[in-house]
Fold:
Amino acid sequence: MAVWFTSDTHFGDPRILRIDRRPFPDLPRHDAALIANWNAIVAPDDEVWHLGDFALGPSDQRVAEILGQLHGTKHLIIGNNDGAGTLAAGWTSIAHYAEITVEERRLVLCHYAFRTWNRMGSGVINLHGHSHGMLKPVPRQYDVGVDSQGFAPVQLPSILTSRRRKIAVHTSSEP
Structure:
């Protein structure tokens, strides 16, 4: 079982193509590409931590359908755009904050980037979303949002090396 992280998918959000200048011609192709990218790498028994802003705009039923199409056991860390439909969609867990261990690394997960966090002086890493790749990186803090990570979930080793390499952008709606 692999553990993946992502954030700020903004499924169904008509503002996202304009505000973040995502490289998709329209919202249906944006959503289809993000679903295909996710399912191309995440296996059904993998674990995925979505750090907020899953969807905004589609009906509650459509939000649940999108979540149901995505592989993996899915956990939600609530973002500022996650409404009742997202919260009711069928996540394995829902929280505003989590501390977990992955590959012997302690992680603090939140939608928002922290200035300080629990045990940061002991090497604990903060994973966040919300900023859409616009914040200047600080040590041991990583933006796992799709805008920063090639429009697909990422694993911890890729996150930890993401500042040293150019992230490939996946814009195809084909897996």
The CA atoms of residues 126 and 141 lie 5 Å apart.
